[in-house]
């Protein structure tokens, strides 16, 4: 809706003061959000417009939802950005996260000229992807001078997505609920319209209208002043705003009336020639003029032609609702014939249909499937929901609703999916209910609940009749088997999915699970062969992206870290047409590979981005992996308070065999190791050692927990148990020729043999480990090996050899800033008579991982915008972090920062280039 028809407003001083006060706060460099709500016509739009006029010195972005366009992906965002041409990145994009990032980027750029005001009016009618992108962006504003004002009749309106509703009703949001104007204000309002009202007459007007300014203005405009002021005579009935509009309509000629009705059917605003065609009027200009004079329409003409606009949403609603059902349908039927896009045509056909309508439901379903092929999951879901509404048979209705639920999960709208599922009718066939609830349980991270539901859904599903659903069920079950650690079962479900999938596009995780499951059984070659035909550059929307991500994992497990990082980065950069979960896992795989490769700041940043994405898109089942990975870097650096929140959830009970992958157990053990708590390691890994399905756990290279446990047992004097962990692991690692695992084993066995007094055995074990470690580039693992070997050599009084090992360890641990390990190394060096050359506390060490990541990316030559995109942050947040870094390191320029980091950070494993540009 365009901001329209505004005169000076009366009253509302308290509300305006609050907006101004908040803006003052925003101007200090903090974001603010306001929810303005209240009944229709109460003056929400007017209030905000007034505020914008008073702060005309600031840049503002405005958009408003339009009921007719609520199915149009990114319509609202396109409006927000409209005045910022050439900026319309969401054209062609289908991913709310990408759009959210673009919005953040835009806000960042605009802030260079000062604080910004973003206004979203009639949010309840904005399209869902825009609202999701807005929510995503709002959550990421930290150090931004952005005041966001969201206007809706109520935040509880069903079309406001749950995530946004929470944000708008949360503590961080200022709520302005508009009540009616007082009598004195109405008197002033009347005065502005040239009518002098005594206070008592104004009081009566307030009672009649609840102080609703739209209604009051209408009465003042239509009722003669002498009637308004004469308290002995009642105000004319009917007194509703609707009736006042209809009176005006009835006062028009028939052509003008028909034109207004046609406009009402087309939407809040539409090109006049389309209105003319629909109303069957050859020359629409004269009746249009008449409607404008009657204040039923406004004339908004542009270079593109005449445009008709309703003066107020309630005027539009009154006109539309006054049409008889028959006339309304007939007009929509004709509008469908005249429509120039499929989407528009379908919208009118839905309104024209005599529910139920089988053919239309089928067309909507076909359109939805087309949308899903381009990854437009929100639109897929909306069309399926419409199709379900008008499906004649209850069963079809349920089928389509279930598919809509699955699409919403893919779109990262898990809460919307849950709401839809809660509304499944009692008559819904069991298999459909099981599928919908099972998919939801999986997404929410309740595998124990998901497995029986999905198993039953599969057993009852007629795959020939419903191949899309059959594939999805099988995909979910393959994921669950993978999570439980059963490779063969996961492969079995992948095969079932594939054989049901004739003509159905592969869902996102089929290839990933297939390859990972094969690799978990030692069949990495077979897994990699599945991705052999992947072209060098995988097309954005084409198939194969699932296998690209699968290959990233298999390469990582097979010590090809460069290959893994490349694949995961490519998967990430092309993930915008894939499900929310796909994007989360691309972040997680990338972060994990970077961690192994010693690129810890990148790893921390990518895993943190994965955590926040998983949370924002409700992917509970996926969240555990990035969360666990996010604990590793702070733990290894001795920042245990930072690591703790990420692993806390891992301590929750894990009763089911399907309780996620054992990432959190591993992260806990890793943390306990860094703290030097051997009992803690054993306790953390207890659920891993007792797990029923062992493929993913026991396969060398996947999750390197064995050496941690063996070391802990050794330290506790439980030597037999240490050997029992190492022996089978070594056998398998040797069989696979996996050097990384063999290096870990050699180190742990060296420690064990040393503890048992077998010094010769220990030495040859350490030496063998060194040979393996030289074959792969795993800096942290190698440093730990040098450290342990150095300790052994010092105890054996081989001081020179010990020093060589310890110094090698020290150099790497220093670069990684692995403080607890470094301290140990320094103690050993001192004991060898050579204190570490470098000071123990580097100036950069009190940076948070995010500050580090930002600093490092800045020094790799990235602009702040590029950094923001990479780390899923706002540009201002990046600047904020950089400012902190400057302060903590005592540097004043980007160049100085880069020089400093190069000094401290060289050899972080990452290929640091020269210093980045000083400016953004
Ligand atoms: N404080 C005010 N003083 C004078 N006139 C006002 C005031 N507030 C609103 N109006 C008038 O009342 C009409 C309705 O206001 P507005 O469009 O702002 O309502 P709204 O709450 O945004 O309604 P909706 O929920 O339908 O969008 C407008 O024509 C406007 O000019
Ligand atoms: Mg409004």
From TrEMBL:
Q: Where on the tree of life does the source sit, at the highest rank? A: Bacteria
> CDD domains from the entry?
LuxR_C_like
Q: Which GO terms describe its cellular component?
A: cytoplasm
Q: Does the keyword ATP-binding apply?
A: yes
* UniProt-recorded Gene Ontology molecular function terms: adenylate cyclase activity; ATP binding; DNA binding
Q: Which residues form a coiled coil?
A: none
HTH luxR-type domain mapped to chain residues: 841-905
Q: Which PROSITE patterns match?
A: HTH_LUXR_2 (PS50043)
GO BP annotation list:
regulation of DNA-templated transcription
Keywords per UniProt: ATP-binding, Nucleotide-binding
Annotated transmembrane regions: none
Q: What is this protein called?
A: Regulatory protein, luxR family
Q: What is the species listed in this Swiss-Prot or TrEMBL entry?
A: Sinosporangium album
Lineage from the top down? Bacteria, Bacillati, Actinomycetota, Actinomycetes, Streptosporangiales
């Amino acid at each position: 809706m365009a901001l329209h028809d505004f005169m000076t407003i009366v009253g509302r001083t308290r509300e305006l003061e609050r907006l101004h006060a908040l803006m003052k706060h925003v101007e200090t460099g903090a974001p603010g959000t306001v929810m303005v709500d209240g009944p229709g016509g109460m003056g929400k739009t007017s209030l905000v417009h007034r505020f914008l006029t008073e702060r005309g010195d600031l840049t503002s972005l405005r958009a408003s939802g339009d009921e007719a366009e609520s199915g149009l992906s990114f319509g609202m965002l396109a409006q927000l950005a409209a005045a910022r041409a050439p900026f319309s990145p969401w054209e062609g994009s289908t991913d709310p996260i990408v759009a959210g990032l673009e919005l953040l980027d835009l806000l960042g750029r605009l802030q260079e000229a000062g604080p910004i005001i973003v206004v979203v009016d009639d949010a309840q009618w904005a399209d869902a992807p825009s609202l999701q992108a807005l929510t995503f962006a709002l959550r990421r504003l930290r150090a931004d001078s952005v005041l966001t004002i969201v206007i809706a009749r109520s935040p509880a309106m069903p079309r406001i997505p749950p995530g946004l509703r929470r944000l708008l009703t949360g503590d961080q949001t200022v709520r302005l609920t508009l009540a009616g104007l007082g009598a004195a204000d109405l008197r002033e309002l009347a005065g502005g319209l040239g009518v002098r009202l005594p206070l008592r007459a104004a009081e009566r007007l307030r009672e009649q209208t609840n102080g609703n300014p739209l209604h009051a203005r209408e009465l003042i405009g239509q009722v003669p002043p002498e009637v308004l002021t004469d308290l002995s005579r009642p105000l004319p009935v009917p007194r509703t705003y609707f009736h006042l509009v209809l009176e005006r309509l009835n006062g028009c000629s028939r052509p003008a009336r028909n034109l207004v009705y046609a406009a009402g059917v087309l939407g809040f605003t539409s090109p006049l020639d389309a209105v003319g065609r629909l109303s069957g009027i050859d020359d629409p200009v004269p009746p249009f003029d008449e409607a404008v004079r009657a204040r039923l329409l406004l004339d908004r003409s542009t270079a593109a032609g005449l445009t008709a606009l309703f003066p107020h949403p309630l005027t539009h609603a009154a006109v539309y609702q006054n049409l008889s059902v028959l006339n309304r349908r007939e007009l929509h039927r004709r509008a469908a014939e005249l429509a120039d896009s499929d989407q528009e045509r379908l919208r009118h056909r839905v309104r024209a249909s005599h529910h139920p309508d089988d053919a239309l439901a089928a067309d909507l379903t076909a359109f939805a499937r087309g949308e899903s092929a381009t990854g437009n999951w929100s639109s897929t879901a909306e069309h399926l929901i419409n199709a379900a509404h008008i499906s004649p048979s209850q069963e079809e209705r349920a089928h389509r609703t279930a598919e809509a639920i699955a699409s919403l999960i893919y779109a990262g709208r898990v809460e919307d999916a849950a709401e839809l599922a809660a509304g499944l009718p009692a008559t819904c066939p069991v298999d459909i209910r099981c599928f919908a609830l099972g998919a939801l349980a999986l997404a929410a991270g309740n595998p124990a609940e998901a497995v029986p539901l999905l198993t039953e859904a599969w057993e009852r599903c007629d795959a020939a009749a419903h191949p899309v659903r059959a594939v999805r069920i099988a995909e979910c079950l393959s994921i669950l088997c993978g999570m439980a650690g059963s490779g063969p079962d996961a492969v079995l479900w992948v095969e079932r999915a594939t054989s049901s999938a004739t003509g159905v596009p592969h869902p996102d995780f089929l290839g990933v699970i297939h390859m990972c499951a094969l690799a978990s059984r030692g069949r990495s070659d077979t897994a990699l062969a599945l991705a052999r035909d992947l072209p060098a550059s995988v097309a954005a929307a084409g198939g194969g992206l699932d296998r690209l991500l699968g290959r990233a994992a298999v390469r990582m497990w097979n010590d090809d870290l460069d290959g893994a990082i490349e694949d995961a980065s490519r998967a990430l950069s092309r993930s915008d047409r894939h499900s929310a979960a796909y994007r989360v896992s691309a972040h997680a795989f990338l972060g994990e590979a970077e961690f192994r490769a010693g690129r810890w700041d990148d790893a921390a940043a990518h895993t943190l981005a994965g955590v926040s994405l998983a949370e924002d898109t409700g992917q509970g089942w996926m969240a555990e992996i990035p969360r666990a990975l996010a604990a590793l870097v702070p733990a290894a650096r001795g920042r245990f308070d930072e690591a703790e929140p990420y692993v806390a959830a891992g301590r929750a009970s894990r009763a089911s065999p399907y309780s996620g992958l054992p990432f959190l157990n591993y992260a806990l053990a890793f943390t306990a190791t860094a703290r030097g708590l051997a009992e803690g390691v054993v306790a953390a890994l207890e659920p891993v050692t007792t797990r029923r399905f062992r493929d993913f756990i026991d396969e060398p290279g996947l999750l390197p927990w064995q050496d941690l446990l063996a070391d802990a047992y050794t330290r506790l004097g439980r030597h037999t148990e240490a050997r029992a962990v190492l022996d089978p692991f070594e056998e398998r690692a040797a069989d696979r020729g996996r050097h990384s695992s063999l290096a870990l084993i050699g180190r742990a066995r060296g420690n064990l043999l040393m503890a048992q007094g077998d010094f010769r055995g220990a030495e040859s074990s350490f030496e063998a480990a060194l040979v393996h470690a030289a074959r792969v580039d795993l800096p942290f693992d190698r440093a730990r090996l040098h450290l342990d070997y150095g300790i052994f050599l010092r105890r054996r009084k081989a001081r020179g050899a010990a020093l060589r090992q310890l110094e090698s360890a020290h150099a790497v641990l220093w670069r990684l800033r692995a403080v607890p390990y470094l301290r140990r190394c320094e103690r050993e060096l001192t004991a060898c008579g050579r204190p570490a050359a470098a000071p123990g506390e580097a100036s950069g060490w009190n940076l948070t991982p995010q500050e580090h990541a930002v600093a490092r990316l800045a020094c790799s030559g990235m602009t702040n915008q590029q950094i923001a995109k990479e780390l899923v942050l706002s540009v201002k947040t990046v600047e904020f972090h950089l400012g902190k870094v400057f302060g903590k390191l005592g540097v004043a320029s980007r160049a100085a920062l880069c020089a400093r980091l190069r000094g401290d950070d060289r050899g972080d494993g990452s290929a640091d280039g020269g210093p980045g540009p000083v400016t953004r």
